[in-house]
Amino acid sequence: MTGNASSYAAAGVDTAAGDLAVELMKSAVGATHGPQVLGGVGGFAGLWDASALTAYRKPLLATSTDGVGTKVAIAQALDIHDTIGQDLVAMVVDDIIVVGAKPLFMTDYIACGKVHPQRIADIVRGIAEACTATGTALVGGETAEHPGLLGVDDYDVAGAAVGVVEADEVLGPERVQHGDLVIAMASSGLHSNGFSLVRHILAKRGIGYHDDLAELGGTVGKTLLEPTRLYTAPLLDVLAELPGAVHALSHVTGGGIAANLARVLPVGSWVELDRASWSPTPVFRVLADLAGDTLESTEGTWNLGIGMLAVVAHDSASTVIRALESRGIPSWVAGAVSTHARDLAGFEQGAKGVDGGAVRLVGAYAN
């Protein structure tokens, strides 16, 4: 071993472990590569052949970046690392489909206190499998060892993706009209938001991730690690099969249902979402009960059973629902868009710097 390598190892960085992690993940990453990806795995930069974009009339590139928040703390506590990758892809790629864009490629970044090769490979395998499911090439990534900054079993993940959409096919507030219906798409659980609150509730009640709660039908940890549902592939199919039917999409992430829908509505419009149109799944009810709160009080934090919303033409709603459900996405009408003047007190109006429409939830949840 050279002097420099020895010094680096003494500082807590194991380059050999990093190399082994790359070898373990190579096949999973390679499986996401089509003919557009050049150079394989391990280069300084990923290469993607953009010549296919010449077929577009006016291609717009869409990009998104995100992580999975403190859900990684639960994966670490349970030593289960092959699901968190799907959460990452969902958080990044399902933001791209919101504007109607087809994802092209993604990169990931994993920061850890110590490289455990099999753990890193498990994380990346989950990312790669979800990339395959969404038609996204995983063209590059980085695993960085940060001894002294992160504990030896600590890590965090982040990713970024790029997609493309025709300029005249971009979805958003400009397409939304009075009378459009709002279709809700079921979530698979908590997805990747609100876990700081989840962990606080469990710690306060002395409940561990290995505890078995009958109301959940299994252990707490297994329920909480349920991967985020992937909406991209089904929605791309719907957009292609029913051109013009979908006017806007909203990914229900941080901020909850109302705030995220408000972001994709035009100023001056409003929606009342009917809570009676769905029943929040047990995980939300159990957590709210443990906290001594109502479901309504958590609406700004959790998705409560809705992972994505679509604003669609009134006469296309039933067709869109059938198309989504045939692809395994339970869906239903939850509200309608109105531009009639009214008092908007109590509505969420825009979010995250966007001056959008106004949304509130009304009624009582179905049992």
Automatic annotation (TrEMBL):
Cell location: Cytoplasm
Pfam family, one: AIRS
GO cellular component, as recorded: cytosol
SUPFAM superfamilies given in the database record: PurM C-terminal domain-like, PurM N-terminal domain-like
PurM-like C-terminal domain location: 178-338
Pathway(s) of this molecule: Purine metabolism; IMP biosynthesis via de novo pathway; 5-amino-1-(5-phospho-D-ribosyl)imidazole from N(2)-formyl-N(1)-(5-phospho-D-ribosyl)glycinamide: step 2/2
Entry-linked CDD domains: PurM
Alphabetized Gene3D superfamilies for the sequence: PurM-like C-terminal domain, PurM-like, N-terminal domain
One of the GO biological process terms: 'de novo' IMP biosynthetic process
InterPro entries with a match to the protein in the record: PurM-like_C_dom, PurM-like_C_sf, PurM-like_N, PurM-like_N_sf, PurM_cligase
Domain of life: Bacteria
Catalysis: reaction(s): 2-formamido-N(1)-(5-O-phospho-beta-D-ribosyl)acetamidine + ATP = 5-amino-1-(5-phospho-beta-D-ribosyl)imidazole + ADP + phosphate + H(+)
EC number: 6.3.3.1
MF term (GO), any: phosphoribosylamine-glycine ligase activity
Ranges of residues in domain PurM-like N-terminal: 57-165
Keyword annotations: ATP-binding, Cytoplasm, Ligase, Nucleotide-binding, Purine biosynthesis
UniProt key word NADP: no
Annotated family: Belongs to the AIR synthase family.
PANTHER family: TRIFUNCTIONAL PURINE BIOSYNTHETIC PROTEIN ADENOSINE-3, TRIFUNCTIONAL PURINE BIOSYNTHETIC PROTEIN ADENOSINE-3-RELATED
Protein name as annotated: Phosphoribosylformylglycinamidine cyclo-ligase
Source organism (scientific name): Microcella alkalica
